[in-house]
Design goal:
heterodimer; A: alpha+beta; Cytochrome-c3 Hydrogenase, chain B; 3-stranded antiparallel β-sheet; 14 helices; 9 strands; 51% helix; 14% strand; B: alpha/beta; Rossmann fold; 5-stranded parallel β-sheet; 36% helix
Amino acid sequence: MKRTVDVSVPLGPIHPCFKEPARVKCETKGEYVLSAEVELGYMKKGIERIMRGRPWQEVMFLAERVCGICSVIHNMVFIEALEQISAISVPERAALLRVIANELDRMQSHILANFSYCYTIEHETLGMYLLDVRERVMDELERITGARVTCSYIVPGGVRFDIRSEDVLHLRANLAAIEGEVTRYMRMFESGPLIGLRSKGVGILTREAALEAYAVGPTARASGMPDIDRRLRHPTYKTLGFTPVSRTEGDNYARIMVRFQEVLESIAIIRRCLDLLPVGPIRGGGIPGIGEIAYSGEAPRGELSYYIKTDAAGRVVDISIQTPSIMNIEACCHYMLKGVPSLADVSSTFVSADPCIACTER
Amino acid sequence: MNVLQSVKNLVRSKSIHVAYVDVGSCNGCDIEVLACLSPRYDIEQYGIYVHNNPREADILLVIGAYTPGWEEKLHTLWEKIPDPKVAIAVGNCPISGCLFNRPHSLIDPPVSKHIPISAEVPGCPPRPTEILTAVLSVAPIVFKDYEVSKR
């Protein structure tokens, strides 16, 4: 059948709504989007090429800079993979501190994603409220790990800094404030009539399509796949006993709501960690040795996998990284953007999948 | 100094439009630029607006270590910005390539080889306050009496 295409509209690479450069090319019929494709290649630095042949002490910092938004999880997955290779055990206090840092990072990433969405649908008030809450989370991250973005908190056999008792008090007080504010903004998002018009039923990703596209993370969980969460298989998270959030609608609204609910879930996980936190050392010993492993963890955007091969001196011989955003970007272009009612919804649908171009291209 | 120039100085001191372009960073500096928008740092109280539209921008924040995808594109972007204009390098990447500047990487730092950079904010990533300070300290030097100094 011959397709009638009125015009091919490119969005980006410099676009007011996109944080990072990506080009979305839409074939439209009037305002109706027939198909879309994404053009990447603006951020390729070749991190994996730099990593090969370097000692793990250097690769650790490179791994963290694969993605600046979710740097803690990159650090955590790389170091835990090294620990699995060399059978290094982690003290219980350090394992719980890792979870606290990781969940704080997940909270700020989700709040930032929701800010981007609210900013894109031009609900700037809610967006600014969310950025204000995010600064509280960044404060806590800085107080515990010593840096706002690239913290290098996790090292083989433990973590770098201990949490002091006054930090625990401050963290608990701040968590209560964050919980109150996020609940309030979630209710604003739920009940806003104009937000509903822009979000409900737009950019639908059905469960079948999500399975076909291998969507991961909150994007898949919003399409009714709760068991996709890799945290369920992590030894420390297993002891904390949490249930992953999921919704069944699969539209923009569901994706943003899943992120809001996961922020609240993360707050509950951090509280449980603080309750369980035993007294003890934060660093065991251990030297990374020879071996190879494929290891994955749950990043804020979905499943993150590392394949690492090391030699006896702890140098990284071979490494390959699979980041979650590439699957979500493909799912977004092939399924969500198809049949979007207007061009104004293209940018908001693209942002709702929370694409991270830096970690997609590395 | 004529009246027109003093009016221009007054207007330019209160409306500085900022665009940011990421030419291959890790995203850490992008989110610190976004954090400048937040009510805590509140970049708009100084009359600085982040629109990310090069055609109405006065200041271009360059983030990242210049990847091959930006060859020619960054220069085209720089020429689209109307005069008076200024580029600020944010983070270690556009200054030196940071830790990506190793053998076998694809990047080509510093960015000052490709477009004129007027100010640099080192840090991996710099704090939002540092970015804000850089923008605020560069703006009056460049935009005040621009027509007089050009002559």
